[in-house]
């Protein structure tokens, strides 16, 4: 309190009612007021209790007498010293803070709320009415009141929140209806109103979760390409077709079952069967890599030295086809396939009468020189073969034991057809077979010639070979008397034959006696013509590919002769020095021919260039003792294949000089193909005939 | 089947062939003449390569299809022939 006084003194004018009480102590405090130290308050209080002793504290301010006697006026005002004097309010009107001077100077020290009601107020009136009612039925009232209390207390807490007294009043008239006029609505007040609340026990919440294994995720990606779309369409198409077929063939249930079995078996096949085709391709590629230079030569090499060696040519050796298991056999037949011009067939057997072992039929392709494509072995040596010109999967084979057989390269059981003793097989080796055109019933036919002097035609009817004797070769056409009076038919043994390229019924047969007979299919006992060709068996007789009149024959009497079938004497005779194994016309020129001899040489002639000398005479096999047995020209490539008696086939490329075509004069049109060849030949012949005429 | 086996043996024995791998439809090498790690590596890499090559060929003309792929590198030549998801891989050193 002395502190407050000090404050009042500092202000000079203000005080408070409270300080009136303190005013009694002013005189004492006036001494103290001079003390400015706050710490003296406590000491001052202590001094007051001690009383009477006027002690000067040590740090009392020393004042002069004049200052001590100075009178200081003190004023008591009714201002509240606690009231704030610096209230500042924001005035929106003036938009600035303004200090308000109006301050409430009322200080409230104590508040007590009473329970007195004015007698005319509503509350009081209500209470009076209630009291008036309550006065009459005193004891029952209490009960009713207590009942009402019970009724109210659950009601009031419920209604207290929203509705308050009004709801309570409404209920009360309802409850009061049972006791009419006696009860008044109970008013909730702070004495008999209680809010009761209770909280039920909250169950503790617990998290429960269950996690299943997520479904496996697989990344899926696809591309939509042109070919995928195409494949999808194809599948759709196939499905549609299958459903159509099923509709059509509902009756043939058995077939369906068998088809199902077939497909099952196929899928069970081993992995290796699936790569059959691929392994073939791969082998060919591998070999092509190894023999790359040969392949390049085959395709592109043209001997440049031919320009300097005109008119001679050379043969460039390409691949050698060798199969290990045929070492003892010699090549007895060669034939190119017309359809697949890189495929050729090799027949292997033995010419030696005493050494007869089995034989083989091999088919090679130029694309794979290392291994034959097809391998068939036969009981007896193969002596001749022919591939059907149109159906190139049919191969006719003539064997040493006189049988003929037909192999179908596409079908499994081999051979497809075979002649037996019952079905007219030859009694002697079959030297030549040739396919002919199909007969009227579209059955395939081939002819064979054998030393038993028969020329037989075989027809393939379903599963059988039906033979027909075409002609019996005989000398002089008659029967001569033998020593014992027995009749010997002078048969001549056929060793080779060839059919005319254009005239279907005309064919030539070469015999062991060295004669060549011109025959017709329709005349079975008579020859149209006989030529005294050679002194030894005729090994080969071949019609010219282009010119219809010319044919060639060769024999072991070292000669090659060229004939015109209208003339009984040969047009050209070539003496080659050793036995000639085979001779062949070239398919690209009517005047080029090639012959092989037993001294392993190949002789190539071009009559257009040099009528007397071969253009090329070249040994083609390494080992000296090998004899060349057969030769064939490739239909389209400038290659010849030569077979020898060791079972090997050598392929050679003809140099450009050997394949010359006649030069056309400027301004003249170059006539194409066979016409040119025929014309060429005719020119030759005319040249021949002129000197003949002149000599004659 | 035996002739296929023979053909594969012949390929393996040809001059210059370093190795042969036959991979089946699932990408697993079925038959090989090289060691395991090299085989699996070649199989894996060449499978995707061949698929890409085949896709390229067929994308241009869906009726066409890939028959053979040859990769010539400095050291040797890798040849791959696909068929029905199977692959025949031959690594050869063409003699020069």
Automatic annotation (TrEMBL), chain A:
<comment type="similarity">
    <text>Belongs to the dynein intermediate chain family.</text>
</comment>
<feature type="region of interest" description="Disordered">
    <location>
        <begin position="653"/>
        <end position="681"/>
    </location>
</feature>
<dbReference type="GO" id="GO:0005874">
    <property type="term" value="C:microtubule"/>
</dbReference>
<dbReference type="InterPro" id="IPR050687">
    <property type="entry name" value="Dynein_IC"/>
</dbReference>
<comment type="function">
    <text>Part of the dynein complex of respiratory cilia.</text>
</comment>
<dbReference type="GO" id="GO:0036158">
    <property type="term" value="P:outer dynein arm assembly"/>
</dbReference>
<feature type="region of interest" description="Disordered">
    <location>
        <begin position="1"/>
        <end position="39"/>
    </location>
</feature>
<keyword id="KW-0966">Cell projection</keyword>
<feature type="compositionally biased region" description="Polar residues">
    <location>
        <begin position="186"/>
        <end position="203"/>
    </location>
</feature>
<protein>
    <recommendedName>
        <fullName>Dynein axonemal intermediate chain 1</fullName>
    </recommendedName>
</protein>
<dbReference type="GO" id="GO:0003341">
    <property type="term" value="P:cilium movement"/>
</dbReference>
<dbReference type="InterPro" id="IPR036322">
    <property type="entry name" value="WD40_repeat_dom_sf"/>
</dbReference>
<keyword id="KW-0963">Cytoplasm</keyword>
<feature type="region of interest" description="Disordered">
    <location>
        <begin position="240"/>
        <end position="265"/>
    </location>
</feature>
<feature type="repeat" description="WD">
    <location>
        <begin position="531"/>
        <end position="564"/>
    </location>
</feature>
<comment type="subunit">
    <text>Consists of at least two heavy chains and a number of intermediate and light chains. Interacts with BICD2. Interacts with CFAP45 and CFAP52. Interacts with CFAP53.</text>
</comment>
<keyword id="KW-0243">Dynein</keyword>
<dbReference type="GO" id="GO:0036157">
    <property type="term" value="C:outer dynein arm"/>
</dbReference>
<feature type="compositionally biased region" description="Basic and acidic residues">
    <location>
        <begin position="666"/>
        <end position="681"/>
    </location>
</feature>
<dbReference type="Pfam" id="PF00400">
    <property type="entry name" value="WD40"/>
</dbReference>
<feature type="region of interest" description="Disordered">
    <location>
        <begin position="132"/>
        <end position="219"/>
    </location>
</feature>
<keyword id="KW-0206">Cytoskeleton</keyword>
<dbReference type="GO" id="GO:0007368">
    <property type="term" value="P:determination of left/right symmetry"/>
</dbReference>
<dbReference type="InterPro" id="IPR001680">
    <property type="entry name" value="WD40_rpt"/>
</dbReference>
<keyword id="KW-0677">Repeat</keyword>
<keyword id="KW-0493">Microtubule</keyword>
<dbReference type="GO" id="GO:0045503">
    <property type="term" value="F:dynein light chain binding"/>
</dbReference>
<dbReference type="GO" id="GO:0045504">
    <property type="term" value="F:dynein heavy chain binding"/>
</dbReference>
<feature type="compositionally biased region" description="Basic and acidic residues">
    <location>
        <begin position="240"/>
        <end position="258"/>
    </location>
</feature>
<keyword id="KW-0853">WD repeat</keyword>
<dbReference type="InterPro" id="IPR015943">
    <property type="entry name" value="WD40/YVTN_repeat-like_dom_sf"/>
</dbReference>
<feature type="compositionally biased region" description="Acidic residues">
    <location>
        <begin position="162"/>
        <end position="172"/>
    </location>
</feature>
<keyword id="KW-0505">Motor protein</keyword>
């Amino acid at each position: 309190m002395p502190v407050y006084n000090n404050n009042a003194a500092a202000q000079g004018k203000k005080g408070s009612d409270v300080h009136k009480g303190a005013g009694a102590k002013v005189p004492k405090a006036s001494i103290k007021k001079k003390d400015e130290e706050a710490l003296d308050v406590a000491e001052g209080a202590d001094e007051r209790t001690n009383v009477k002793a006027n002690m000067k504290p040590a740090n009392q301010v020393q004042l002069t007498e004049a200052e001590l006697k100075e009178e200081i006026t003190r004023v008591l005002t009714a201002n509240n010293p606690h009231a704030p004097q610096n209230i500042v309010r924001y005035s929106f009107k003036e938009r600035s803070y303004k200090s308000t001077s109006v301050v409430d100077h009322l200080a409230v020290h104590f508040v007590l709320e009473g329970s007195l009601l004015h007698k005319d107020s509503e509350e009081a009136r209500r209470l009076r009415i209630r009291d008036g009612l309550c006065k009459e039925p005193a004891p029952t009232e209490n009960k009713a009141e207590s009942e009402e209390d019970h009724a109210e207390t659950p009601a009031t807490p419920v209604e207290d929140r929203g509705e308050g007294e009004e709801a309570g009043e409404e209920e009360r008239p309802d409850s009061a209806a049972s006791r009419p006029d006696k009860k008044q609505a109970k008013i909730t007040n702070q004495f008999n109103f209680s809010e009761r609340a209770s909280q039920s026990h909250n169950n503790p919440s617990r998290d429960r979760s269950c996690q299943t294994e997520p479904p496996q995720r697989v990344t899926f990606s696809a591309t939509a390409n042109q070919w995928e779309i195409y494949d999808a369409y194809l599948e759709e198409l196939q499905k549609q077709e299958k459903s159509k077929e099923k509709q059509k063939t509902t009756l043939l249930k058995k077939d369906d079952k068998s088809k199902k079995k077939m497909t099952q078996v196929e899928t069970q096949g081993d992995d290796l069967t699936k790569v059959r085709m691929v392994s073939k391709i791969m082998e060919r590629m591998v070999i092509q890599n190894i023999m790359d230079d040969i392949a390049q030569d085959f395709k592109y090499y043209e001997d440049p030295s031919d320009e300097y060696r005109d008119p001679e040519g050379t043969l460039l050796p390409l691949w050698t086809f060798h199969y290990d298991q045929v070492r003892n056999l010699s090549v007895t037949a060669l034939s190119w396939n017309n359809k697949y011009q890189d495929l050729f067939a090799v027949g292997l057997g033995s010419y030696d009468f005493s050494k007869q072992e089995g034989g083989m039929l091999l088919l090679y392709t130029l694309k794979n020189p290392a291994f034959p494509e097809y391998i068939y072995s036969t009981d007896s040596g193969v002596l001749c073969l022919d591939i059907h010109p149109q159906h190139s999967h049919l191969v006719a084979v003539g064997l040493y034991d006189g049988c003929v057989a037909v192999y179908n390269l596409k079908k499994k059981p081999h051979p497809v057809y075979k002649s037996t003793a019952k079905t007219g097989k030859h009694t002697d080796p079959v030297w030549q077979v040739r396919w002919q055109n199909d007969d009227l019933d579209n059955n395939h036919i081939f002819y064979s010639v054998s030393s038993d002097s028969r020329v037989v035609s075989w027809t393939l009817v379903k599963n059988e070979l039906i033979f027909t004797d075409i002609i019996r070769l005989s000398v002089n056409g008659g029967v001569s008397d033998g020593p014992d009076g027995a009749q010997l038919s002078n048969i001549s043994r056929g060793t080779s034959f060839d059919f005319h390229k254009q005239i279907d019924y005309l064919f030539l047969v070469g015999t062991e006696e060295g004669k060549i007979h011109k025959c017709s299919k329709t005349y079975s006992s008579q020859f149209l013509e006989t030529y005294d060709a050679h002194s030894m068996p005729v090994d080969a007789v071949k019609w010219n590919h282009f010119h219809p009149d010319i044919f060639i024959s060769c024999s072991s009497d070292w000669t090659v002769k060229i004939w015109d079938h209208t003339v009984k004497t040969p047009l050209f005779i070539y003496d080659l020095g050793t036995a000639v194994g085979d001779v062949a016309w070239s398919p690209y020129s009517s005047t080029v021919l090639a012959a092989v001899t037993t001294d392993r040489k190949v002789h190539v002639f071009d009559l257009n260039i040099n009528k007397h000398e071969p253009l090329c005479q070249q040994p083609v096999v390494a080992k000296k003792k090998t004899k060349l047995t057969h030769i064939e020209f490739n239909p389209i490539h400038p290659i010849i294949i030569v077979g020898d008696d060791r079972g090997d086939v050598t392929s050679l490329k003809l140099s450009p000089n050997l394949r010359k075509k006649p030069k056309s004069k400027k301004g003249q049109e170059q006539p194409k193909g066979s016409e040119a060849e025929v014309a060429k030949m005719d020119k030759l012949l005319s040249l021949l005939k002129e000197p003949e005429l002149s000599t004659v | 089947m035996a002739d296929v086996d023979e053909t594969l043996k012949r390929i393996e024995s040809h001059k210059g062939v370093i190795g042969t791998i036959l991979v089946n439809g699932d990408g697993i090498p079925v038959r090989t003449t090289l060691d395991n790690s090299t085989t699996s590596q070649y199989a894996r890499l060449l499978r995707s390569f061949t698929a890409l090559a085949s896709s390229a060929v067929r994308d241009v003309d869906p009726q066409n299809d890939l028959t053979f792929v040859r990769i010539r590198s400095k050291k040797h030549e890798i040849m791959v022939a696909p068929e029905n998801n199977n692959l025949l891989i031959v690594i050869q050193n063409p003699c020069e």
